[in-house]
Structure formats: structure tokens, C-alpha cells
Design a protein that fits this description.
Radius of gyration of chain A: 18 Å
CATH class of chain A: Alpha Beta
Helix content of chain A: 25-40%
Distance between the termini of chain A: 42 Å
CATH superfamily of chain A: Ribokinase
Largest interface: A-B, 41 and 41 residues
Largest sheet of chain A: 9 strands, mixed
Number of domains of chain A: 1
Order of helices and strands of chain A: EEEHEHEEEEHEHHEHHEEEHHHH
Low-confidence stretches of chain A: none
Mean pLDDT of chain A: 95
Strand order of the largest sheet of chain A: 5-4-1-8-9-10-11-12-13
Number of strands of chain A: 13
Oligomer: homodimer
CATH topology of chain A: UDP-N-acetylmuramoyl-L-alanine:D-glutamate ligase
CATH architecture of chain A: 3-Layer(aba) Sandwich
Number of helices of chain A: 11
Strand content of chain A: 25-35%
Structural class of chain A: alpha/beta
Amino acid sequence: MSVLVVGSVALDSVETPFGKADNVLGGSGTFFSASASHLAPVQLVGIVGNDYPIESLKKAFSERQIDLGGLEQADGPSFRWRGRYRHDLNSAETLETHLGVFSNFRPKIPEQFRRAPYVFLGNIDPRLQLEVLEQVERPKLVACDTMNFWIESRRPDLMKLLEHVDLITLNDGEARQLTEEFNLVKAARWIMAKGPKLVVIKKGEHGAFMFNGTSIFFAPAYPLESVFDPTGAGDSFAGGFMGYLARTGDLSEASLRRAVVYGSAMGSFAVEKFSVDRLLEIGPGDLSRRVGEFHRLVNFEQELDS
Amino acid sequence: MSVLVVGSVALDSVETPFGKADNVLGGSGTFFSASASHLAPVQLVGIVGNDYPIESLKKAFSERQIDLGGLEQADGPSFRWRGRYRHDLNSAETLETHLGVFSNFRPKIPEQFRRAPYVFLGNIDPRLQLEVLEQVERPKLVACDTMNFWIESRRPDLMKLLEHVDLITLNDGEARQLTEEFNLVKAARWIMAKGPKLVVIKKGEHGAFMFNGTSIFFAPAYPLESVFDPTGAGDSFAGGFMGYLARTGDLSEASLRRAVVYGSAMGSFAVEKFSVDRLLEIGPGDLSRRVGEFHRLVNFEQELDS
């Protein structure tokens, strides 16, 4: 089954303690697609300017099941982001953001994408996320992402959106900001009371929680010896998560737990190189090996006597 | 089998967003003992002043297998610590520290404690930790803790100590400070090259890693809805860890992994109330239930086809 993603398609310039990359493929839609397409066909909806190296994107995605039929090209500059990570790699320092044509983006879902059973609303204005939902036909699962900027500036729209999504992914800081609850268990419960049946709280290098109202699942981030560039880890996580569900069509708790692990595995690959480079390189063997490594990382046997 | 612990026995005054406690039982030796004694007999070596409410300690520990035969009472004031936690509960702000008789502590291991098969050197001067090792007879496992103060002021002694311990527990900040490696996988490898076969890096609310040179194990902190007072969580972790090993006498990797989970479970109980109150309250049923909850928290089945 296919996954529809609506998100940014950008050009990133990134500096880390290990190197520098200029105007490379970036954006939430791009990372999500590169990740999810390992597991299921992806339909990408986004916008780029007329300066976008669209042939590079097509070439990068040429061997992947990613339909670019919803990628609009408009007059004007593309979304560009420039950022820097210090030695702790924990948080990006944004040096420049130019929204370009992205600032007037109004997602139009092509006819052939409207029945996608899995829908991921990347981190864009909640009003646009709601517009996307008006254009799709009864998906099996709708998930959304958001960020501090929308929580602050579009709270009423975001609250309305929450009534219409099955799952939200957000990071710990955003969960605290949205709910005004410091404790993440309480924050998740607050969010579930507003609509979503599932809440995924990402803690970056500290892993991710999934809450479903009756149980909590936790997956650590994979302890890599070299994290090269953290950009896109969260969107790659979402891609692995949604891609896994779309591949299996299984929304049982066991499947959702594995989806979190597939997401974590994809996040761990994304940070090994700049841009989507590592995500495009890996094959199914790499992915299942890393999932196995996650299992060994956390697995313990309970005693027979306890 | 029994566990010998050498550590501080103090009086803590703590303020958290949820309440205040004055002159309550505290110190690394106290938390370790309250925790480990759920699983194995404990022999405590420490020092208190003549102002110490020794009867309260005896009463608190009366139903537990804790031998206080190594607790020296000296002329002078007891070790007192006063601290405060803000709403994020992540790091204590120390308001006052009075070492009192602890500043002249020279651990004397009673004859009947010298053959303890499991030895935990709580966070004291590495010179004293080395003196303890000179007094014990071939333990099966020696573990030590340390802190930023000793890493800074007693590095040569600490490096010598590392040659003589099987395991070190320290937090992520301390591991980075000791090794000058930001990456924890690299930091653990650096430490193992200096002696310890096992390294446990604690990340507080973000869980704990155990490294053994060939594999990595991770256990999250239990996602409690109410963390009341984080004081003593690390020492309670160490107590659960060492207590489990002493109970089973099994140093296989499977057992060490379970020990980390028992440690994490004990840490999660410790923070539910002030001082050792919650650790003294719980029974074996509570402990095995929480270990089961840890299992459900991280457990996922790998797919058959991957």
C-alpha cells in the first residue's frame, strides 16, 4: 500500500564538525520519501522553485518507488535552509531560512494520490495540513508532524487538526510546549484526549516513545560511533514508521512497535552522511540487520521465577 | 552471596517542586544498601558523626538484610547535603555541602566483610577506593562509581583504580569528562582499554547503557508519571544491579543485562518518594512487576521474514 506525504522539498547547506555540504537535497518531504520508499511506494506532494535541480532529485530517486507527480514547480526561489551543528550535534543552529515559493504553497493532491491509505502531513502550517485532509478519501491512517512555530502561531488550527489525525509525531520540547505538561506521560495523555489515538514523542539521540492509551513503547536511538549530520533524522524516522505500516497494512500494537523500530533504524542511517546520501545507499539487508541490532540492544529475558 | 558497599551515609535536605524534606537519610551507601538488600545481604562500610540519628537508620533497615557492623561513628558532625531541584528535575542545585567526619574517612573493612564476593566502591576519593581493595580478598566482581570532582582532582589515582575494577558506573557527563570523547560508544571503549571489562553509562531520565566490548545493552528509565525526588537514583541503580548479580552469582551476559534492568527498576522506585522511603516500602512483588513493565516497554518481535 502507498504512503502520501506532504512536506517541504528544500536545498540545505549544513556545517558539522566533520564537514560541510552546500545546497544538497533536503526538506521533510525529501527525507521522508527517501526513507519510506525502502518499504512502500511513496507519493510526494510539495513545491520547489525554478532554481531547483529537479533532475538531481529525479536521478537520486530514480531507483526508488517515489512518485513525483505531486511536486509542483513554481516561479521564484526554492526553500533554502542553512544551519550548523556544534560538537554535541544535538541541536541545529539555524543561520538562514529562505522560504521562497514554499511561503505560498497550497498543497494540491493529484487525483491519482487521493486514495492513498497512509497519509503523512509533514511539518507545514496546520491550515494546509487540514486542506490536505479535505482532499483525500478515507485514509487508513493519518499522521502529522508539527513544530514550535505552529504551536505558538497557529494553536487553534493545530487543535482542530488534532481532531482529524490518528497519530502525531513531535519532539519532547514540542510536546511540552503544546501541552504545558513537563512530564511526557502526562503530555501524551493530554494530546490523546484531543484526538489522536497514538502519540510518538521523539527525543533525538535519546530515542522515542509511542503511547497508545493503554501501553507505552520505547525504542532507543541506535548508539552510533559516528553521527555525521543529524539533519532529517526525525523525518526519516517518520518515513520508516509509515513505510513499515504501509508495507504490512497491519495496525496491531505488535506492528506499530516494529514500525517505531523501523523508524529508529531509518533515523540512524540518515545521520551517517549528509543529506539523503546514506538513505539512498542502503539496501534491504542493511535495514533488517539494523533492526536486528536494535533487538539485541534492548533484549533481555525475564527470569522464570519472577 | 553478599555485597560489600563503601559509601557515604549522610543527612539530606531536599526541596523539589512537590515538597521539602529536612535531614532525612541519604548518601550513596544508604541508597545502595536500601536497594541492594531487596536482592542480597548487604555489608555497609561508612562513617557518621555523633549527631547522626543512628537509631532511625537501624529502625529503617531493621527488616532488611543490611549489616551495619562497618558503620563507624566518629566525633564531629555528619555529612550533610542540601539541594534543590527545579521543575525539570534533571539536575540538582547544591545549596550546601558539609563533609563533617566524612572528610577524614579512612574505610576500615571489618574482618567478617573481607570475603564479600561482590564489592561496590561508592563515589569517594579514589585513594580510599584503592585502600578498600587492599583490604578485601579476591572478590568475584568489583565495581566503582566516581564523579566530576575526582576526575578533575584525582585523575592519576582514578586511572590506577581503573586497572583494578571489573566495572565502572558513571554518568554521561562524567564519561565525557574522563575520556574527552563526546561520543559515548568511543568513551566506553576508551575506559575499557584502561582496565574495566564492563562500563555502565547512566543517562538519568534517558536510561543507561552497558558496554562489554562486544555488545551494547540499553535500558530506558521507566517513564513515571510523577517523579518526586531524583536524589539517590544512581546509587539505587547500582544497588539493584549489584544486588541482582550477588543474588544469582551469574555473570553471564544475559544475567548482566537483567542486572541493568533490576538497577533501572530500583532507580525508578527511589525517585517516587523522598529519601529511601519508597525503597523501604516495596516488596518482591513490586520489583518483579516493574521488571515485567520494563520488558513490555521495550519488547518487540522481529518479523519472521527479516
